[in-house]
Amino acid sequence: MTSRGRTAFYLISPAVFFLFVMQVYPILYALYLSFFKTRGRSMSFVGLDNYLRLLSDTDFWASLRHTFFFTAGYLVLTLCLSLFLALLLNRRMKLSPFYILVIFTPWVLSPVIAGTMWRWLFQPAYGVLQFLLEPIFHKTLITDDKGAMGIVILALSWRNLPLTTLLFLGGLQTISSEIYECASLDGATAWQRFSKITMPLMKPSLLINILINTIRGINVISIILSITRGGPGRATEVLGIFLYRNTWQYGDFGTGAALGILMFLLTGVVSLIYLRTIKMEN
Asked: Where does the record place the ABC transmembrane type-1 domain (predicted)?
């Protein structure tokens, strides 16, 4: 190794060490722990029993189904709203800095604070949004299965809207205004400019947002835990809540580790599909 190579190695070694301690080691330890049955401080090797027990557990499949519906609803709502906001902000309206400040306010809140706020908004006795929506739905939304799922989808979309909007806005600002001017001179309508110019050129930003928000939807836990704790019943028990209950409430760290590994594999599959899509686009 040359002196330049050694210098580069020394410079990046702290970051590599930090990455290993914070990312790689926990994954490896979770994989190791998933092959054991834990009882307090005692551990007994059970092989793949934790995985087999999960795959035969109806609650696991129910939480997987809830995760799918939650992620799909959250993804569609977040992408549509953030793209709409990015298009508005890209027009450079008056008071745009103020609008940006308002839109990005949720990002500075922790998921627990955001979830607590949304729980209060839908409290049956004093919730403002519950009071406004009850004449329309004629029920307490947070105690209804579909209503509770809608609330947690709306809450996470509101919490993560700023980052998605920022990524879309960055993509829009890379599109030259001359392209739109030429299209307008050729008689293209606003919808044709959006569908034939904006969306094709926004594909990289769109794919990045799809990947980030899909991973976020699969691994969500804190904001749902703050709002519904997986209820009513198990209506909003996604994989993250199911993992929390098995690990911390029931003390079954082996099963919790196995579930964590399955979630890691699910996230990896989504990432590989994304990377393959990017490669096909290029």
From this structure: 64-274
Give me the helices (H) in 20-110, please. 25-33, 49-55, 58-89, 96-104
Contact present, 37 and 254 (Cβ < 8 Å)? yes
Q: Is the dihedral of CA 197, 199, 202, 204 positive or negative?
A: negative
- The two structure tokens encoding residue 198: 């904006």
Q: What is the pLDDT of residue 73?
A: 94
Alpha helices in the chain, H assignment, sequence order: 3-19, 25-33, 49-55, 58-89, 96-104, 111-121, 128-137, 145-172, 177-185, 190-193, 199-201, 203-218, 222-227, 239-244, 253-281
CATH code, domain carrying 145: 1.10.3720.10
Q: Which amino acid is at 95?
A: L
Give the whole-angstrom CA distance, residue 250 versus residue 57: 15
Q: Half-sphere exposure (CA, 13 Å, Cβ side) for 26?
A: 7
Number of structural domains found in the chain: 1
Residue 157 has a pLDDT of 93
Which structural domain, as residue segments, surrounds residue 168?
Answer: 66-231
Spatial distance between the Cα atoms of 43 and 253, rounded to a whole number of angstroms: 10
| Each residue's pLDDT tens digit, 171-226 | 888 888 888 888 888 777 888 888 888 888 888 888 889 989 999 999 999 999 99
Q: Residue 11 falls within a domain, yes or no? A: no
Classified as helix, coil or strand, 39 is strand
* Regions of the chain where pLDDT drops below 70: 1, 40, 92-96, 280-282
